[in-house]
Structures are given as C-alpha cells and as structure tokens.
Amino acid sequence: MKIFNYKILLLLSGLLVLQSCTKDFDEINDNPNFPTVDEANPALILPKILFETGNTMTAEIAWGTGNILAQLVATNNFTGTDRYLLGTYEGTWNLFYRNIRDANNLLDLAEASGNGGYQAAALTLRAWMLANLTEMYGDIPYSEALKGKEDEFQPKYDKQADIYITILKDLEDAVSATNKGGSMDGDIMYNGNVDQWAKLANSLRMRYLMRLENKWSELGIDGAAQMQAIVSSGVHFLSNDDNGAVPYLEGTNRWPLNTSRVGSFDEKRMSQRIETVLKDLNDPRMNILFREVDNPSSNEFVGVPNGLSEDEASNFNGGANNQSRLGTRFREEPAAVEMMIMHYSELMFIVAEAVEKGYIVGNTADFYNAGVEANMNYLGIEDASGYLANPDVALTTEPLKRIGVQKWLSLFMVGNEAWFDYRRTGQPELTPGPSASLTELPSRIQYPESEQVLNESNYNAAVASQGADEITTKIWLLQ
Description:
The chain is mainly alpha-helical. The chain has one domain (42-219, 226-242, 336-478): Serine Threonine Protein Phosphatase 5, Tetratricopeptide repeat (Alpha Horseshoe), CATH 1.25.40.390. Helix content is 51%, strand content 4%. It has a two-stranded antiparallel ribbon with strand order 1-5. It has a two-stranded antiparallel ribbon with strand order 2-3. The protein is globular and about 65 Å long.
C-alpha cells in the first residue's frame, strides 16, 4: 500500500513539474515583438493601411496603369501597358488582401473598445479596397479569403454582385459607426476627425451606386433613392477640404517620382487624346499637367498617340525632345501629388450625372460647374468662370458627354478610376493605338498566376462561371 501511494505521489509531482515547465516555456516563448490582435495598436494599423495602399494606388497604379489605360498619358518607352500587354498585378492583389486583413483586425479592435471612429475607418477602407479588387478582376475570393493564413488555404471566389452588396453595406455601416464618436490616433488622412470619415464613406457610396446603375434592379436596391438620401443628408464631400487624400511629405515620405530615376518619369508623356481635348477647350490645366516640349526652337505642347510600338513611340514627332513631358508638380515638387482615394470634384460630377438622368433632384449645371471649379482650384487655378463661359465647356448641349469628359480630366492620377468609369460611360471616346494587342480597351485584369497554382479548383470554378481569364472578358458589372 505504501509503495502504491509513493508511486502516485511521484506521478502527481511529475505532472506538477511538467505543468510548471509548460507554463514557463509558454511565457518564455511569447515573443513581445509579435503581439496578438487584441494587443495590437489601432494607431499603428490605420496609418499603415492608408500609406501602403495609397502609395501603391498612386505611385504605381495611377502612374503606371490607370492614366495610361484611360489615355490621359502615353508612353514613349516600355510601351507594353499602352499596347495592353498587361500583367496580372499579383503584387497589388496581395497588397490589398494583406491590408483587408489589417482592416478586419482594426475593425475587431474598434468594436471591442466601442470606438466608432476606427470602426468607420476600417469599414470604409475595406470597402474601397474590395471595390478596387473586384473592378480589376471581377469575381474574387472574400468570404473565405480571410479565414486562413497558410499557403495551402484555398478560398472560394465570391460573385461580384455579392461583393458589391458587401461594399455598400460596409459604407452604410461606416456612416452609422461615426455616431459613436471615438478619438483616433494615427489618422494621417483626416487627423482623427470622425465626421470626415462619414463624408468619405457616403461619397464613395455615391461612386459605387452610380457604377452599379444598370444593376440596381438585379441587386434589389433603389439606387436613386439611396443617392437622393445621401445628397439630402449633407453628409458627403462639401469642398476640396474634404478630399479623401493622404499627403506626401517633404521628407522621407515624399512623392516617389520626385527622387526616382529620371527615366521612370520621362517615359510618361502627354497623350495625343488629352492634347486634343485640352487644346479644343483652351483648357488652362494644360500648363499644370504638362509642359512644353524640350526642343528650344518650339514652345508648344505635343502629345504622343497611345498604343505605339517601342520604336514608333520613341521616335514620334522627331523624338523625346519634341514630346511634352508631365508637369513640374510630378517631378520637381516632392509633395504636390497626394495619395488620392476620392476628390470632391468627382462627387460633383456624379451628382450632376444623377440629376441629368433623373435619379435625384437639382440643377445639373450647378453641380457640373462645381465639379469643374473644384478640380481647377485643386490644381491651383483660382478662377474658373472664364473657362465655364466657354461655349464648348458650358453645359448647354450634350450634357452627359461633357460631364463625362470633365470627370475624365479630374480623375488624372486617381488609381484606375478613369479607366473604370470609361468602361461604364464610354466617355471620352478612346481608341486603341495602331500597335495595340486589342481592338477595344481592356475590360479587366487576369487573375494572378499563384491562384492557378495554389487555388486551382476555385480558380477553375470562377473562370467557368465568369468566363475565360482574359482581359477582354466582360465581368458581371459590364454585362
């Protein structure tokens, strides 16, 4: 009996020692440099999302893709994008998913603490990132995409229609969340002003409601009523002071093209399409967005046609010295460019179009004029009255066409928005260049190669449902 009790005592002692060692090991193995989500600091998560996504969408996507596909600029070297030899933008795909996960973490922290400001920011940014992804690719993984972090995890693709329902709900919930208030450190866009996030969320709702105008019935939403409610609420952009923009700074976080190799800057040139528009309208933005050719014997602006071959582009009009480069703000000024999510001017053009189509009440010309004036003011032109009096600018004829052209000009350097909006409106008229690989502008971006390898079955299901994984395939939004 004593031997039996002794064995039990030894067993119990061993278990206690093991438990103690396990506890000590867990404490030692807890890396303070990798906190769990509940230990994360919202003031560090928010600026990381804003800067990483904002910088990519401006310095990479707007500069290298959006402006080119919308023919706001052309290239005279490395003309692949101009000829629609597009890649899969896997880096952008991964960046957005990484930051959507961060937005979800920010949302969890905000909900746990009851901070409405961080909730609104997380929901708004998540909606904006989802919109960019689905408008680039079509159907995308979402509902299952954020559940796992291992390479072998294989999320299904959600339908674009369902993604848009999520986007609209997130933005509506973001506005509601701002009613809770809550201080926000790390807000490098609005400096912790919660009301500004409500304005941004509603302004983005207007963007996506208009983008969906041909799908309202299919989605079961009264888009016109929602747009009218937003405008009537007054909770939306009211001036350029409300722009959804993260500034570049004079120091380390400056506009990247200010210090990049000069070749990266010089390969972008005025497009022949925008040259025609600006000259026809005697538009003062010509001198801001572009500069006269470098050839000292000629003080004129000359655009390059889009979609030329490398040789044709580099030698067009006698070579680079006879082609207009982009304006000084895009090279010589370290902080003139901003990481832009949305301009006040864009909202005004959306409202003008909505009024013209009878979705909401108002005077079309008032909002149109406000949009033109706002964009000119943003670029440093104080008085737009003379320009608006121009018979070719005034909204006296072809209102939807003129709204579309002015909106196109205002979307210079705003991600892919000019391309996205062109797909909906067809304004202005854009034609692929002579050496382009297509006879029409691209409709989407192809899925990353990693999806074909690591998520093959779901990738195949998405392609079977949406259509061939080609840049000409019309996504649901465009059908």
